[in-house]
C-alpha cells in the first residue's frame, strides 16, 4: 500500500494534506450510452462522493481530470452534474479543485472556479491527470487517466497502480476511474500504457478494488471496499495466463 495515503473505494486520501483525490468521473457517460436508462448517473456520483467525504473528512477534494466524458464543451445536463459535484464538496465543508484531463477542453466554461493543469498539495504531492508530463517535480505523484483494470480468476476488476519508484523515480499512484461505468484497461494484456507517469508497467503493483464485478457494458458496486494488493505485474503475469 502506498505510504502516507489511505484508499477509500476508488479514491485516495492523503492525510498529510487533508486532501481527497478522485479521478475520471466521466459525467455524461450514461447519456452517451444505453446505461443512461439504467442509472441515475448524477445521483450515483454524488452519493458515492458524499459517502467518501463523510468517511475521510477532507479539507480539499481534488478532481484529477476527466470530470466530463464528452470531448469539448459539456452539454447542459453534464454541466449541471459537474456543478453539483463542486457544490457537494462545499456542502461537506471542503474546497473543490479541478485538474483538467484530456476530455476536459470545455471544463472551464462550467466549473465554478479556475481549472488547473496540476495541483500541488501541502505534503508535496502533485496531482495531475496523467495523460501528459507535468511541468513540475514533486515528492510523489497521484493521477488517473488509465482506468486500470485486471482480470483475476475470470473476473475483470478495477485497480489502483502503485510504483514506489515510478515517475521521475518518485512514488506514483494511479487511481481507478471513479465512474463505475467507464471502460477499464486490462493491464495484464499490455506491455506499456498511454501515460508518461507509468514508464514501466511491469514494475507497478496492482491494488484491486474488491467490490462487485464490472460487467462488460456496465458498472460495479460502489461501497468503501477493501483494496487487495498484488505483487508487481512482472511477477504476476505468469499466474494470469
Automatic annotation (TrEMBL):
**Boundaries of every Calcineurin-like phosphoesterase domain copy:** 19-131
Entry superkingdom: Archaea
Region labeled Disordered — which residues? 204-229
GO terms (molecular function) for this protein are: hydrolase activity
PANTHER family in the record, alphabetically? Answer: BLR1149 PROTEIN
Under which name does UniProt file this protein? Metallophosphoesterase
Amino acid at each position: 500500500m502506498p505510504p502516507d495515503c489511505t484508499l477509500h473505494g476508488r479514491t485516495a486520501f492523503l492525510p498529510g494534506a487533508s486532501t481527497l483525490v478522485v479521478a475520471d468521473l466521466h459525467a455524461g457517460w450514461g447519456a452517451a450510452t444505453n446505461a443512461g436508462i439504467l442509472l441515475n448517473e448524477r445521483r450515483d456520483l454524488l452519493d458515492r462522493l458524499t459517502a467518501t467525504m463523510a468517511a475521510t473528512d477532507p479539507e480539499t477534494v481534488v478532481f484529477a481530470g476527466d470530470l466530463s466524458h464528452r470531448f469539448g464543451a459539456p452539454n447542459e445536463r453534464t454541466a449541471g452534474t459537474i456543478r453539483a459535484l463542486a457544490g457537494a464538496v462545499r456542502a461537506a465543508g471542503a474546497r473543490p479543485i479541478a485538474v483538467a484531463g484530456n476530455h476536459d477542453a470545455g471544463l472551464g466554461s462550467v466549473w465554478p472556479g479556475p481549472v488547473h493543469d496540476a495541483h500541488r498539495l501541502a505534503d508535496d504531492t502533485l496531482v495531475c491527470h496523467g495523460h501528459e508530463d507535468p511541468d513540475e517535480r514533486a515528492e510523489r505523484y497521484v493521477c488517473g487517466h488509465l482506468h486500470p483494470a485486471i482480470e483475476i480468476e475470470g473476473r475483470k476488476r478495477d485497480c489502483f497502480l502503485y510504483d514506489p519508484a515510478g515517475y521521475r523515480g518518485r512514488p506514483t499512484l494511479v487511481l481507478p476511474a471513479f465512474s463505475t461505468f467507464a471502460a477499464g484497461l486490462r493491464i495484464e494484456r499490455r506491455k506499456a500504457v498511454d501515460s508518461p507517469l507509468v514508464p514501466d508497467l511491469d514494475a507497478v503493483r496492482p491494488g484491486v478494488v474488491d467490490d462487485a464485478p464490472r460487467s462488460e457494458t456496465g458498472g460495479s458496486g460502489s461501497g468503501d471496499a477493501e483494496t487487495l494488493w498484488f505483487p508487481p505485474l512482472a511477477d504476476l503475469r505468469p499466474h494470469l495466463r
